[in-house]
C-alpha cells in the first residue's frame, strides 16, 4: 500500500471538506437577512388573506401597514400588555403553545391584530393545531362585534392532497364567513367542522371535508383551543350585543 498516496488523499479530502463547510456557512449567513424578510412578507400576506386582501410581494409591507392599524399582545388571562418589549408580529404562536408542555402556561403571550378595511374594524387571530400528518395553522378574522367570523386562512405541512389538504381551498374556507363564535346567550362555542355536514341554520358549524375526518376535527380543536384564550379580552371590549 502506498502510504504517501493515502496521506495525500486524506489531506486533500480534509481540505475540501473544510472549504465546502466554509462556503456553506458564508452562504447561509449572507442569505439569512433575505430569508428572514421573505418569511416576514409571507406572514404579512397570510394575515391579510384572512380579510380577503391580496398583494404583490414588493407591496406587502406597505399594504400591511395600511390595513393593520394596531397590534396587541395579550397575556394568558386575556389582559392587554402595554409595557412589553415583545411585538405582536414577532410572537411565534407555536412556541407560546409549547410553554404549556414545560409548565410555563401562565407565561404564554397571544398576538392580536386590529385591522381597518372599508371603514370597518376587524380582529385577526393566529391559530395553530394538529392535522392528520402534521401541524395545521392559519388566521381567523372577526368582525367588530368580536363574534362574527369575517374570514379565515388555513395552511398545513403535510396533509393528504384531495383530502386534508383541502383546508387550504377557498371552497372550504368560505364556509366560515358569517359564522358565530358565541351563542345567543353569550357563551363561547367556537365554530365546529361537522362530519356529514352542518345544517343550513347552524350558525356555529361548517361542513367537514369528505374523507378527512381527523383533519376536520383538528381544525375544530384548533379554533376552540386558540380562540378561548382571547375570550376574556373580547368580553371586556365588546360593545355590540351577542344576539343579532
TrEMBL record:
Its cofactor is FMN. The modification FMN phosphoryl threonine is found at residue 213. It catalyses: a ubiquinone + n Na(+)(in) + NADH + H(+) = a ubiquinol + n Na(+)(out) + NAD(+). Keywords: Cell inner membrane, Cell membrane, Flavoprotein, FMN, Ion transport, Membrane, NAD, Phosphoprotein, Sodium, Sodium transport, Translocase, Transmembrane, Transmembrane helix, Transport, Ubiquinone. Residues 131-230 form the FMN-binding domain. Its EC number is 7.2.1.1. It is found in: Cell membrane. Belongs to the NqrC family. Composed of six subunits; NqrA, NqrB, NqrC, NqrD, NqrE and NqrF. NQR complex catalyzes the reduction of ubiquinone-1 to ubiquinol by two successive reactions, coupled with the transport of Na(+) ions from the cytoplasm to the periplasm. NqrA to NqrE are probably involved in the second step, the conversion of ubisemiquinone to ubiquinol. This is Na(+)-translocating NADH-quinone reductase subunit C. It comes from Flavobacterium plantiphilum.
